[in-house]
């Protein structure tokens, strides 16, 4: 049973981080904070399955509680080398426990993405992860992802977006807040989370994300999903 996210029902005492408190309720937080999270995850898996061969390496950057890789393992008959990388010990612990409970073989590693060698990957996944990487390191990481992929390799990237149109940007944020209220978050919780994520989550525009993929060397990039200020990109090496 998922624990209910009540992280922001109390005053903020520190900058947002993926600690034990967040990890314990993260699955609930995702389902209530990210529009169409489950549907988007299933879409990525269904697309990815069409490109997979036996023993392919699939790497999830910012694997959190392991949901993507666990679902992929459950939905394919192929033997795959599945690796989840996260720098949060609490997330890694929960991911390992979940994988064990589902009886799937996944390696979860507590490490910095920029330090870990995930070369020869068939696919790299980064769902709502790149937005937490400081801008000065972001393009370096995307280039590393490109270099780490096999030829014809695939990169999935889901991100929160901003737009340069000020009025539209405000409308998009307001629509997102309506979504969160519909999912049971109070105005206090929404305001507290926004404050906690300030200068921690730094979103780019659609154009900036596309340019970043192009600059890294990806030959093709498409948007396969978008809702308001959330989008998922697929890029091919």
Automatic annotation (TrEMBL):
It catalyses: prephenate + S-adenosyl-L-methionine = carboxy-S-adenosyl-L-methionine + 3-phenylpyruvate + H2O. GO terms for biological process: methylation; tRNA wobble uridine modification. GO terms for molecular function: carboxyl- or carbamoyltransferase activity; methyltransferase activity; S-adenosyl-L-methionine binding. S-adenosyl-L-methionine binds at residues 37, 62-64, 86-87, 127, 194. Its EC number is 2.1.3.-. It holds the Pfam family Methyltransf_25. Gene3D superfamilies: Vaccinia Virus protein VP39. It is an enzyme of class 2 (transferase). The keyword Transport does not apply. Residues 58-153 form the Methyltransferase domain. Keywords: Methyltransferase, S-adenosyl-L-methionine, Transferase. It comes from the Bacteria. HAMAP family: Cx_SAM_synthase (MF_01589). Belongs to the class I-like SAM-binding methyltransferase superfamily. Cx-SAM synthase family. Catalyzes the conversion of S-adenosyl-L-methionine (SAM) to carboxy-S-adenosyl-L-methionine (Cx-SAM). This is Carboxy-S-adenosyl-L-methionine synthase.
């Amino acid at each position: 049973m998922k624990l209910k996210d009540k992280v922001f029902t109390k005053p903020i005492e520190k900058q947002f981080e993926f600690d034990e408190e967040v990890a314990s309720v993260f699955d609930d937080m995702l389902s209530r904070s990210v529009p169409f999270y489950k549907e988007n995850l299933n879409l990525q898996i269904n697309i990815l399955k069409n490109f997979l061969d036996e023993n392919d390496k699939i790497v999830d950057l910012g694997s959190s509680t392991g949901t993507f890789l666990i679902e992929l393992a459950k939905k394919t008959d192929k033997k795959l080398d599945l690796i989840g990388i996260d720098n949060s010990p609490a997330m890694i612990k929960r991911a390992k426990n979940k994988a064990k409970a589902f009886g799937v073989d996944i390696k979860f590693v507590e490490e910095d993405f920029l330090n870990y060698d995930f070369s020869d990957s068939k696919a790299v996944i980064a769902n709502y992860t790149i937005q937490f990487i400081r801008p000065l390191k972001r393009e370096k990481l995307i280039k590393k992802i490109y270099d780490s992929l096999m030829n014809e390799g695939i990169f999935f990237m889901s991100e929160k977006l901003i737009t340069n149109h000020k009025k539209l940007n405000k409308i998009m944020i307001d629509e997102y807040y309506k979504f969160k209220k519909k999912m049971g978050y109070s105005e206090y919780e929404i305001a507290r989370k926004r404050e906690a994520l300030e200068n921690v989550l730094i979103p780019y525009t659609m154009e900036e994300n596309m340019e970043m993929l192009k600059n890294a060397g990806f030959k093709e990039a498409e948007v396969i999903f978008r809702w308001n200020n959330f989008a998922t990109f697929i890029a091919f090496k």
